[in-house]
Structure formats: structure tokens, C-alpha cells
Amino acid sequence: MSSPTPAAPAAQPRKAALAAWIGSALEYYDFFIYGTAAALVFNKIFFPAQSPATGTLLALATFGVGYVARPVGAFVLGHVGDKFGRKRVLVFTVLLMGVATFLVGCLPSYGSIGVAAPILLVSLRLLQGLSAGGEQAGANSMSLEHAPANRRAYYTSYTLSGTQFGQILATAIFLPIAVLPEESLLTWGWRVPFWLSAIVVVVGLLIRRTLEETPVFEQERDRHEVAKAPLAVLFRDHWASVLRVVVAATIATVSTIFTVYALSYAVNVEGLSRTAMLWVGVLANAVALVALPLFGRLADRVGRKPVFIGGSLGCGVLMFAYLGSISTGNYVLIFLVGILMFGVVHSATGGVWPAFYGEMFPARVRLSGMAVGTQIGFAVAGFAPSIAAALAGPEGADWVPVAWFVAAVCLLNVIAVATGRDYYRTPTERLGERPVPRENPAAAPVAP
């Protein structure tokens, strides 16, 4: 009986992680340029008839709409991924995201077609959300199932690292756009980042079509063990894990508050430099690119729970410092705290959860479980900027209730993680199984 070549086991995890990284970067470039545009210009382009505060609130709400569609995408694409394979999901998501994003850049303004403009905007945002609903779960499942059992957190951390790079790319593209004269910015400048998604579609499709299906899924298919109705199996046997992931995934609130609400608050309320605040995001995400795999390595040594919990508690505290620094207008303080909170501390959660969530489920429902659980939690996070804008009062200047809101969310996801099981030492083929006794009762000595 022939054995695989020694290079194969080492090569496949790297290839899967790289493909997931690049694909996620391209996918989330599309998703994040919408958030940047919503914070900076959409209130003037699609909601000019409203007061500035109301227009900003409505623009941020359209950002949240994408998160409403994500659970729907999770149900549909989770079923497809667990029944027909991870690769199909990854090819479809990048195509749908790219097309929807390109069309956003083609939309006429409110001044041209009236209320139809924001309606079309929301419709395309829904398509973006459907795509994102299956993206990370598909990429995470692909990386996790190819990874060595003792390095799952390290390899899956590259999925989220790709997401961070997509955010850097999206923000960097907006840096030269943001310094355009107001008239140019509002007429054609904001459209350029969306039109560039045409390149994203081509590159993303080329990369993802070269992916190989995971050995775990192929074995299930060969043994005819693929679930006919993955969602039914998921909610019948693994509903507690889904609920735990939903609550834990609200940690994404830190990300949406940092990237959308805080940017809008700094520029539109405190009058800070648009370019400087965009640079805070670029540098914080650049630091995260390095921090994420390091925290993944740490989680492979000490477990997922202590790393995640430490990161979440740190974010809950540092959000007070970050929003407070924006209120002072001190750019040095803003950069230092922003990079520390989002680039370093938040990365402790991001480097862990791709493995931690996926390990809660067996392979036959892994993509569904991750997709449904994370996307419902992310939907809460998607509306966090709108909730924050309401909490900040009519003038938008009261940041303290916003910080308390983030701290409360962080506490909830800490409770969810702390009360769960850590599978970091469990073999990949046994992931998602219920705990078994340490000793075999049958082997116990018989009393005389």
C-alpha cells in the first residue's frame, strides 16, 4: 500500500491557508469599501434631504443592512457547503460580492432619481451581505480541515488576516479619494473604489478555482456520510454550539464601532482630519496582520479560551480610551490607542475564533454551524454603528454611552466563551464530539 509523499501534508495546509487569505482579502475589500463610503459620503449622496445627523444615521443603517442579509446567506451557503463542498461556496461568494460592489459604483445619486437611489443601494448591499454570509465560514472550514491538528489556530488565523488586509486595501484606496475637492468626491471620486472590484472578481475567481476540496469532505462523500439536510442535523444535535457562537461572535461589534462609527464621529462630529482617521485604520490593520498569526500560535499552545477572553476584556476597556482620545482631538493619543486596541488586543480574539468556532462542530455540519452562528452574531455587530449613533444623542457627541455599550457586548461574549469547551487538543476527526469520560468504565477494576 503506497503512502503519500512527505511533502504533501505540509504543502496542502499552506496552500489552503494562502488561498483563503487571498480570497478573503479580495472579498472583504469589497465589503469594507462600502463601510468607509457610508461613514464619509453616503449621507450626502443618497440622503441629502435629511439633516446631517439623520443622514449619517441612515447611511450607517444601510451598512447594517448587509449584516441582516448575512444570516440568510449563511443558511443557504452553509447548506450548499456541507452538502456539495466548500469550493463551490468560495467561488460563488467572490463572484456575487464583486458584481454587487461594482454596481454600487454605477448608482445614480438621490439628486438624479430621488428615492429610487437609496432603494437600489440597499438592494445591492443585501447581495453583498448574502455573499459575506458564506465567505468566512467556507474559508475557515477549508483551512481548518487541511491544517495539522496541533496548528489549526495558526493556519485558520490567516483567513481573518486576509480580512484585515482587505480592510487595509479598502481604506488605502480611499486615502487619495478623500483628499479630492468636495465636488469631485461626491460626483465621481467615491465611485472609483467600487469600480475596481471588477479586478477583484477576476483575480478572486482565478485563485479559488485552483483550490482542492478538503480531505475531510471528500472522505465523507466517499463513505456516503454527507448529511442530506445539514441544517436539520445542525439544529437537532448542535443547537447549543450554534447559540454559543452567536453570542461569542458579537465581538465583531468592536470592529464595526472602530471602523465605521468612530470614523464618522471623528470626522462628522469632532471635525478631525478625514485622512488622518483613515490612516489610524490602515496602521491598526497593518499591525493586526502580524499579531493575528502570533495569537494563533499562542492559542495552539495554551488553548483558545484564555487568549480570546483576554482580548475581549481588553477591547471593552480600551474602547473608552479610544473614543475619549477622539473627543480630545489629540492625534498622537488617537493613533496610539487605536493601534493598541484594534491592531493588538482585538487581534487576540481574531486570531482564535476561526479555529475555536469551527472546532465546536463535526465536519458534516461545520460550514453550516460556523456560517449561521457567526453571521447572526455579526448581524448584531453590523447594526452597532447605528445603535451607537442613537446612543450618542442628537448632536452625536456623547461617546460615553457608546463605550459602555461595547463593554457590555464584550462581557456577554466572554461569558459565552468561558462556559464553552476548548477543543484545541482534540484530533481533527473527533472535533465536535460530546465529551467522554477520561477513564473507560469497562476497564475499571472489579470489586472483590
Automatic annotation (TrEMBL):
Name listed for the protein in its UniProt record: MFS transporter
CDD domains to which the protein is assigned, alphabetical: MFS_ShiA_like
A Pfam family per the record: MFS_1
Statement: the UniProt record of this protein carries the keyword Transport: yes
InterPro entries reported for this sequence: MFS (IPR011701), MFS_dom (IPR020846), MFS_sugar_transport-like (IPR005828), MFS_trans_sf (IPR036259)
Superkingdom in the source lineage: Bacteria
Keyword terms, alphabetized: Cell membrane, Membrane, Transmembrane, Transmembrane helix, Transport
Membrane topology: Multi-pass membrane protein
Cellular localization per UniProt: Cell membrane
Gene3D superfamilies: MFS general substrate transporter like domains (1.20.1250.20)
Native species: Pseudonocardia yuanmonensis
Record domain Major facilitator superfamily (MFS) profile: where: 16-425
Positions of transmembrane segments: 31-49, 55-77, 89-110, 155-180, 192-211, 242-264, 276-295, 307-325, 331-357, 369-393, 399-420
